[in-house]
Amino acid sequence: MLDAPITRPRVLAVAMQKGGVGKTTTAINLAVCIAELGQRVALLDLDPQANATEGLAVEMGPDDVSMFEVLIDIEEDRVPLADALIESKWGVSVGAAHRAMRRLERYGLGPSGYTRFSRQVSELDFDVVIIDCPPNLGELTVAALAAADSVLATVKPGPDEIKALIELQRSVQETREGLNPRVNIDYVVSTIFDGRTLVAKDVRRNLEADWSSEYLGEVSQTVRVAEAKNRREPVVFYAPETETAADYRRIAKLIDERMPVHV
Ligand SMILES: Nc1ncnc2c1ncn2[C@@H]1O[C@H](COP(=O)(O)OP(=O)(O)OP(=O)(O)O)[C@@H](O)[C@H]1O
Ligand SMILES: [Mg+2]
Name one Pfam family in it (predicted). Predict the structure, then answer.
């Protein structure tokens, strides 16, 4: 009998260098929704703020390690990525973040840090890996871009959001030229979206015009997201009947259909 083909996971980095634009909310809810579609999903929290780790109620036990130990430059302290994943309650395995990762942002991942991380991600025995990035274009975001097949950019309607998207595109292009030829902004989502406001309508019009193949639509604004966050639950579980939950389920399905499987 022939062996089943070995596939590597499809890797999606959720990125935008601006703070508070819905990256983490998007990463955790898409992770949970894609897992519900039957995929084995790992979520890697590369933000020292650890919001994704907290949002999925992941508690680190005494024997658990975070992404800090995975990414650290010092070989004898390093732990393989596959050994660092922690089961969450939501059917998603999590590479937890820790505030010590701020040191990595400041001092870097070391000479082969990006390629080492990228190789470890590609060797994970999962179908989909989602990486939550911090709100900057520093070391940890570059590590995520180096490991990703696709970037999902979150755009919160506001005056300079399109400019921020273009700036992110420049960084992705630099990563493509140097570290990772396959990475691309393949998906754009408008988050925390209130269709009654003029600025939201403007952002939608711009994205539909300039990012027509990448644009996956809007995620509606709702107070339920803050409530879910307080309870450390993804909103798709906490308030599955909301438009926001339906938006995330729809976008998860689109990404699952569109992201190519690598053999
Ligand atoms: N659809 C939504 N409706 C209402 N509030 C939302 C929605 N999505 C996110 N928020 C709120 O907006 C804030 C920022 O969201 P989130 O933490 O996901 O953004 P972020 O880009 O990851 O932020 P950071 O850059 O700090 O990591 C949070 O308080 C979150 O609860
Ligand atoms: Mg975040």
Answer: AAA_31
Q: Which residues surround ligand 2, an ion (CB under 5 A)?
A: 23-24, 51
Give the global pTM.
Answer: 0.97
Cβ pair 14, 189 in contact under 8 A: no
Pocket of ligand 1 (CB under 6 A): 19-25, 47, 49, 51, 135, 191-192, 219, 221-222, 225-226, 229, 244
CA of residue 23 to ligand 1 center, whole Å: 7
Look-up of token digits 């870097």: 108
Conformation bin of residue 192: beta by default, left when phi > 0, alpha when psi is -120 to 50: left
Strands 85-87, 92-95: pairing kind: antiparallel
Tell me what pLDDT residue 2 has: 56
| Ligand 1 atom with minimal separation from the 19 CA | 25
DSSP category for residue 136: S
Tokens of residue 45, six digits: 């929290």
**Segment 201-254, tens digit of pLDDT:** 999 999 999 999 999 999 999 999 999 999 999 999 999 999 999 999 999 999
Domains of the chain: 10-258 (3.40.50.300)
Q: What is the pLDDT of residue 96?
A: 98
Pairing relationship of beta strands 41-45 and 92-95 according to DSSP bridges: parallel
